Amino acid sequence: MLNFWLVFQVLTILAACADTHAMDASVDTWGYFYTHLMSIWLNRFYIYSCAAFGIGIWICFQFIATKAKKQDEKSTEKLTPSKVTQDVLINGYTMPKTKEVYVAGVKVFYGSQTGTAKGFATILAEAILSLNLPAEIINMRDYDPDDCLAEEATSKNICVFLVATYTDGQPTENAAWFCKWLEEAVNDFRFGKTYLKGMRYAVFGLGNSVYVDHYNTVGKNIDKWLWMLSASRVMTRAEGDCNVAKSKHGSIEADFSAWKARFLARLQALCKGEKKPCSGKCKKGKCKSKGKKSKEGSDHEQRVSEQENTEVEDLFETTSEEELGAEEDGSRNSVIDVEDLGKIMGHMKKAKKECELEEEAGRTGPSQQSSGKNEESERREMITPGLRDALTKQGYKLIGSHSGVKLCRWTKSMLRGRGGCYKHTFYGIESHRCMETTPSLACANKCVFCWRHHTNPVGTEWRWKMDQPEMILREAIENHQSLIKQFKGVPGVRVDRFAEGMVVKHCALSLVGEPIMYPEINTFLKLLHRHNISSFLVTNAQFPVEIRNLEPVTQLYVSVDASTKESLKKIDRPLFKDFWQRFLDSLKALAEKGVTYCGESSASNLTMANVPWHEEVVHFVRELADLIPDYDIACEHEHSNCLLIAHKKFKIDGEWCTWIDYDRFQELVQEYENSRGSKTFTAADYVAKTPHWAVFGSRERGFDPLDTRFQRKNKTKDISGC
């Protein structure tokens, strides 16, 4: 009402002024202004009151607005406490920084035989999608770990494995290749201990506790292998039990539901950037914080512990750098879980003790072993129980008491059309048809770079039971074919290469040990040739007499690991006291055979980081070739980081002929045997022209253009090598 009255008074004054102006238009200008000024002066109280009231209203409005703004800012700071620091200045404008993503999505892998794991995968994926997270269901049969698994180390995905255990503890058919690849990656020194560092995963195994010896074996193995490659568990491995009498929640479906709830809660925490499930000290993903360890969790861990204690003790392979570290500081520098360390070390000590006993017996000589007159039946077997367990876990197929066979990584590579090893480039050997084997796991050296962690038998002569060469060859071929069969249906394997791979055409006697120690090595070589299988024999230059006595061999290699007596002793650690003279005599014996000379830079005994770059190898070999009369660089295989130095006599009419006519070789061998050794031949009699892509200096740099070079996306995970 007061405001209305004040406005009315102002209007009245203005109206009076207007009336005055109209009635007396003749009044002078000064009188006119004087009259109005006096009117305003007389009514000044009302004008002051209106101004004061307006200012008060404005002040109240500003106070309320400021308070509301501060409350909004405070609320925003609670949601994004580092908002100010996250802002960046772009082109003069303040722009909010992109919000960090902690989990990009979830990949759900399943290994299923009857469909249960597949069904669980679908249920889990739907639950993840409800959290507004991407989810992908992956059949392990359709996933190529060789191409894709390393990418998960940087993808910010969470990988979940729902895997069932099938008959006799084996993986399901669709998960067999994935499991085989993962196990071999763990035991392959080229991958390294940190191959999957950065990858996050969780495992839920499906099994039946009725089968006590194999209960959830596959889930346990995948969990262990991933962890050994430095992948990180986001939560403890869980197990579903089809045996309702033993199932923790009454059925495998209930077990899965309980685990799913825990996983989703953990996933939400990870999405917020939480790195640890609790503030306490955790071990192998198991919560150890006070007050947070439920009875259910305790029962579960106790059950897992009991099951793991009943398992056969495992012996994990080490690389040369791990072995070196163990010798230097007395501790094993490898990715081994502290809970497994005791049994692993115990098993390794057992295996090494067996080998030391063998070595000591070998050094005593035949005079101290019943004058060397022990009957064959009284001799011990070369492969001890500890060694058999270790080699079997490393992927070897053992034959009899002293032989073995294993697939080479280049065999797998060429089956998939990704190129062969340097032997394919240098000599025309088809890697997918090459059988890598050895008739003797024993050796006369204890090389510092040996990846067998020095548990193989050692000795200076043969003193074990001996298997017949016919049996060794027969079982070697059978085991090799069984290993090839496992690649049927594997993603990327070429059908034509798979069929060819079932027929062995080459045999690389270079797997491990010293093949030339086998007393019947010449008979074994003859058997290979009679089966139209070429021979590629590697020796460590400690048996010159045996080298001279060798029957025709397609290719003979002598390993040259050092250039001086002192360095050879430090690197190869030979058992022979006259090792240096044996080394020199072996090289002389090799020269008498008239074979090509292969020069390559061998890897260091430390890590792959110490291996020279290919261009460094090229530089070294150029300088070496300049120092060797009548020799020159013939071939190059960049993929394996090596080159071939050959005698110029193999450069016929200006073209290198380092490849081998294997059919012609078999004909010459047959003629040699038919003539009882009188009709001899040399390497020049079965050479073939080297293709242009294999010659040093070619654009392909030794890679067969019929295959496709596979480049790993993550360069830090490259495992290329010889």
From TrEMBL:
Pfam families on file: Flavodoxin_1 (PF00258), Wyosine_form (PF08608)
Keyword annotations: 4Fe-4S, Iron, Iron-sulfur, Lyase, Membrane, Metal-binding, Nucleotide-binding, S-adenosyl-L-methionine, Signal, Transmembrane, Transmembrane helix, tRNA processing
UniProt biased composition (Basic residues): 281-293
Cofactor names: [4Fe-4S] cluster
GO molecular function, one term: 4 iron, 4 sulfur cluster binding
EC number per UniProt: 4.1.3.44
EC category name: lyase
InterPro entries on file: Aldolase_TIM, Flavdoxin-like, Flavodoxin/NO_synth, Flavoprotein-like_sf, rSAM, rSAM_sf, tRNA_wybutosine-synth, tRNA_wybutosine-synthase
Region spans: Disordered: 275-337, 352-381
Chemical reaction(s) catalysed: N(1)-methylguanosine(37) in tRNA(Phe) + pyruvate + S-adenosyl-L-methionine = 4-demethylwyosine(37) in tRNA(Phe) + 5'-deoxyadenosine + L-methionine + CO2 + H2O
Coiled coil: none
Residues passing through the membrane, by range: 46-65
GO-annotated biological processes: wybutosine biosynthetic process
Superkingdom of origin organism: Eukaryota
Record's compositionally biased regions (Acidic residues): 308-328
Compositional bias (Basic and acidic residues): 294-306
Pathway(s) per entry: tRNA modification; wybutosine-tRNA(Phe) biosynthesis
Secretion signal span: 1-22
Flavodoxin-like domain residues: 106-264
Family: Belongs to the TYW1 family.
Biological role stated in the UniProt entry: Probable component of the wybutosine biosynthesis pathway. Wybutosine is a hyper modified guanosine with a tricyclic base found at the 3'-position adjacent to the anticodon of eukaryotic phenylalanine tRNA. Catalyzes the condensation of N-methylguanine with 2 carbon atoms from pyruvate to form the tricyclic 4-demethylwyosine, an intermediate in wybutosine biosynthesis.
Protein name per UniProt: tRNA 4-demethylwyosine synthase (AdoMet-dependent)
Species of provenance: Terrapene triunguis
Upper lineage: Eukaryota, Metazoa, Chordata, Craniata, Vertebrata
Gene responsible for this protein: LOC112110133
